[in-house]
Model the fold of this input.
Amino acid sequence: MQRTKQRIGQLGDSHCQLLYDPELLSHPAAGFLQQEIFSHALDYQLITAGGRGKAWFIELEGLSAVLRAYQRGGLLAKINRQTYLGWGAEQSRAFREWRLLHTLYQLGLPVPQPVAASICRWPGRFSPFYRAHILLKRIVDVQTLQQRLTKHPLDKEVWARVGRCIRRFHNLGVYHDDLNASNILLDHEQRVYLIDFDKGEIRAQTEEDVDQPAPWKQQNLQRLRRSLLKQQGIMQASQASFYFNEDDWQCLLRAYKKQGRPV
Done:
């Protein structure tokens, strides 16, 4: 897949640093992704389902986007929900995810197009702590795989598409840190997208790793399977439907294995 040339903008002030696509965001301030963005929004809506980070659908002039604030999960979140330690912006989770998504999008992979990422010092300019946000172009008319499975069974071809999609990423060494049923999107034409690449990366691999998937790729797949089984158990406990079975999973795996090396 041939890359296209695209400029990347970067600016900063005493509190914030911003990485952005100047073709999608014109003349932003360094702290634009903080509260300032809401004053520029034509409309915005808090997203209440999926993911552990706080997120909003935001309508800006000429741009429909998703704003996500980085937040911790697990026990640590009870003490420190949204601040991170670090001085270098390039090592921050927001900048690393933005640059990874930019690369993947340029390679033609089905991911959200990154718009901007920022870190802002908190509570003051000399603090070693920061809060981070990322702005992504919204993929419209989609549902998560998890949402779709609460409504009706998926055709075998859709499961096969999910398997082929995951293999496309794996063939290029793309590691997804949290591949689960909420981070896979399906649109009305049954196209498959992967989202939420926080802590993801492109890993070096050998020829053998492509033909015979490396252990981390198998772990990615098993993480997805566990998320499906977990949601199935939750829905069954509440006597609700969740349309997933072992045949569906085997269909995904067959397509994953058949996809093989890219041509």
